[in-house]
Design a protein that fits this description.
Helices cover 29% and strands 13% of the residues. By secondary structure, it is an alpha+beta fold. The strands form 3 sheets. It has a 5-stranded antiparallel sheet. It has a two-stranded antiparallel sheet with strand order 6-9. Strands 7-8 form a two-stranded antiparallel sheet. The chain binds adenosine-5'-diphosphate and magnesium ion. The site of adenosine-5'-diphosphate has 19 residues, from β1, β2 and β3. One of its GO terms (molecular function) is ATP binding.
């Protein structure tokens, strides 16, 4: 069934998730180069301990700071692969978005860097591992466990949307648990700041599309849809629309038919149905009261929403973390020929001069 990890758009050569420009671009800033209290980082100060995650063009390492002895996660992306998969704008978006945000449930970015082969992002290391692993190990979560993660995710999405950022890649692999069991969203590779163009009514009125006129929620709706899928999967153990090939999945999504396992709570079924509405103008979270409508839903009745971002809800799973640099909650990855890459020609490096 859904044992394997889902691949994001870029992984299967799907270019439908590509941006054509606009949004927060590479010029946005160079603040991250001296972020985190003005500290200046250098690759020479970092020892690689192990790989904790891999992607199409990226690999995430646990690294140890030789001087301060602390640990970080270092995401390294192969520049030729980024270019081949036309992800230049996305990596610029990833940096711009992470540089802008500051929230207890979002990963912190300390520094970005590039050399002739790789782009680097230095982040806080989250030792509890992926929510994906806990979900697959347990098969499915009970109602109160699903409720806890959903509540924290709602706060994270609400915060991002309040900053006009759409996350666009919500899934169990991108949700990490810290050592106390609270969530951290990582992987802002598809995140995007909605451009001003999306928000102001420009163009000739007679010719405007409905979604431009109803600019409230333009783009944000995708995150609420994804939350509907995620809640279904957390409580069922498999996603609502699945098939052995992407085309079959797309057909099922568009058919919009939902089969709930019998054990699901009455209110959560209602919530999921309200997220998985094809017409995004009628989708919960994307109407005029935004995230407030989600928070007021009956399934969340027991949630004290002020307590959530203060990390005051009691985590249902406490990861086993023996020390700050413990990697035992992540899969083991072969440390292959990762560094044997040819340098990138200067004209290609030019695209990343601000990274
Ligand atoms: N800050 C982090 N701390 C610990 N593990 C991380 C961190 N960021 C990413 N990872 C791990 O690396 C994996 C891949 O990173 P991600 O940013 O999702 O890359 P990709 O864009 O290739 O999917 C994640 O699914 C997660 O397991
Ligand atoms: Mg990812």
């Amino acid at each position: 069934m859904a044992a394997a990890k889902a691949t994001s758009g870029a992984d299967n050569g799907d270019s439908s998730c590509r941006d054509t420009g606009g949004g927060a671009g590479g010029e946005a800033n160079s603040v991250a180069n001296c972020a985190a209290g003005g500290r200046v980082y250098s690759l020479d100060d970092l020892d690689t301990v192990a790989t904790v995650g891999t992607g199409t063009f990226g690999r995430v390492f646990l690294v140890k700071d030789k001087k301060a002895k602390g640990y970080f996660a270092l995401k390294a992306m192969k520049i030729p692969e980024v270019i081949r998969l036309k992800q230049e704008q996305h990596v610029h978006n990833e940096k711009a978005v992470l540089t802008e945000v500051n929230h207890p449930f979002l990963i912190r970015l300390f520094w970005t860097h590039h050399d002739e082969r790789f782009l680097y992002m230095l982040m806080e290391y989250i030792a509890g591992g992926e929510l994906f692993s806990y979900l697959r190990n347990r098969g499915r979560f009970n109602n109160s466990t699903g409720l806890f993660y959903s509540a924290e995710i709602v706060c994270a999405i609400e915060y991002l949307h309040s900053k006009e950022i759409v996350y666009r890649d919500l899934k169990p692999e991108n949700i990490l648990l810290d050592s106390e069991g609270h969530i951290k969203l990582t992987d802002f590779g598809f995140a995007k700041k909605l451009s001003d163009r999306t928000w102001t009514l420009c163009g000739t009125p007679e010719y405007l599309a409905p979604e431009v006129i109803q600019s409230k929620g333009h783009g944000r709706a995708v995150d609420w849809w994804a939350l509907g899928v995620l809640i279904f999967e957390m409580l069922s153990g498999y996603p609502p629309f699945f098939d052995d090939n992407p085309f079959g999945i797309y057909q099922k999504i568009l058919a919009g038919k939902l089969d709930f396992p019998r054990h699901l709570d009455f209110h959560v079924k209602d919530l999921i149905k309200k997220f998985l509405v094809i017409d995004r103008a009628r989708r919960l979270g994307n109407m005029k009261n935004g995230a407030e409508d989600v928070k007021k839903h009956r399934w969340f009745k027991s949630i004290d929403w002020d307590a959530v971002p203060q990390r005051k809800l009691k985590p249902p799973i406490i990861p086993k973390v023996s020390h700050e640099g413990d990697t035992s909650n992540f899969d083991v990855y072969p440390e292959d020929e990762w560094t044997k890459e040819a340098p990138v020609p200067p004209k290609d490096l030019e695209i990343f001069k601000n990274f």
